[in-house]
Give the backbone structure.
Amino acid sequence: MLDGSSLIGGQSVRGEDLFQAVDPSTGQLIAPEFAGVGAAEVARACALADEAFHSYRETDPETRARFLETIADNIEALGDTLIERVMAESGLPRARLEGERGRTCGQLRLFASVVRSGDWLGVRVDTALPERKPLPRPDIRLRKIAIGPVAVFGASNFPLAFSVAGGDTGSALAAGCPVVVKGHPAHPGTGELVGRAIRDAVKACGLHEGVFSLLQGTTTALGGGLVADPRIKAVGFTGSRGGGLALVKIAAERAEPIPVYAEMSSVNPVVLFPAALAARAEALAEGFVGSLTMGAGQFCTNPGILLALEGPDLDSFVEVATRTLTPLAPSTMLTPGIHSAYEKGVDAFAQHHGVETLARGAESSGPHCARGALFATTAAEFVADPALSHEVFGSSSILVRCKDMAEVAKVLEGLEGQLTATLQMDEADVELARPLLPILEQRAGRVLANGWPTGVEVSHAMVHGGPYPATSDGRTTSVGTLAIERFLRPVSYQNLPDALLPQALKAANPLGVQRLIDGKTELGTR
Ligand code: NAP
């Protein structure tokens, strides 16, 4: 049974910020009443995380990996109780949420395998050269260590995979960092269930209770206070640009500024190349509408901008896309706030003098339901008004009609940073695509061909990041195993006696990890 608490270490705690989740499909409040916490609980959770840090960061790889796997096991053991609660709090359908649960547990287990491999330690050894002239070289050994307690802000649009036990939490725990989560107030019951699964795993694995806390609440003071707490050493965030930037500012103004890894807004341009359009306009249009409207378009990788050359093939694409989108039933959005922001954004496009409304989805009947929207404009209008390139979170997209590839390049050059950029192309388009690649790799974290940007593989080579405002730090990713790097810091040990060196750096390599010895890779035995 949920009791509407926050989890501070092993304790369930209630505060004074009373709130309830809303079922967006009915507009009804859902029991129980949550009692969000305040400054005293932030301080307590951070103090516990700080206490836990020193033992947790030095847990052996097997213990830490087992911990991540136990969290995944515990989440799965929640069964339908979890799925039904997320459905009620998010309006998302069962199949999508069962898939998301699989992804959440899969990424925790993937991080467990990363921890076991030891590759994340990034061991490098420069052996001493005592005879080197004019000066001898000392023995220098490097490993990466955990950065410290991490604050995580769960996202509303992935209540499992980007929330309490999502990628930010998984990567921080894998790195050896205790985590304090600020739960998203749109799905507090989901948060409490998953939080308990983590708390139980902490206990079962014999870890310090401060390794994990979950703070529930609705005030910006709660999240702001968490980021400002001097014991927090990094922040992971997914949400709005305004929210992310507010946290970046708080972090930068601390006596000790800290990194904030905020994933914020992206419109994910898709270029429809001429040969691809000529060969398969209909399939492209159907694929596009599927990607646009999936999950009510509430994906950070939703295709918000299409670029193509004017002509009969583009007309065919528009005709099929319009025909496919128009009868589509509207979908419930995640929260009343996200729904009203979507309506506002779509209205602004519809009323824009330089924008044509090509298609809207079917009329909506239920509360917080959003109709898909497809708009069109010219490259000249698009370039003239930066507002046309801003994210409308939901199933809204704008087609930018271009006269030639130079206009396509100009539009792409003017875009802000993106999570993705997509090329829909055939063999005959290769030479047209080639000059765009240097532009696209400067703008986006992931460049893909002949797919749709929605659907982000959790793997070793994935980058789910990109230049601002896609994220606040484009050097990294929030999805995939490279995400662990955000919460690690390299330390060199110069001329330390073997007895004092950490396990990973000892001459005998007792952990059997892969190491770069004098610039050459020495394979590990793990
Ligand atoms: P949000 O409003 O940015 O909130 C995300 C989290 O950050 C919540 O826990 C929120 O807590 C906290 N927060 C926001 N502003 C804060 C501040 N100034 N100080 C302290 N904490 C703050 O995002 P959302 O509610 O999920 O969705 C709103 C909009 O975000 C959407 O319409 C969409 O534009 C965008 N969004 C983008 C993505 C993406 O993947 N890029 C994903 C989801 C949403 P409180 O609510 O308790 O303040």
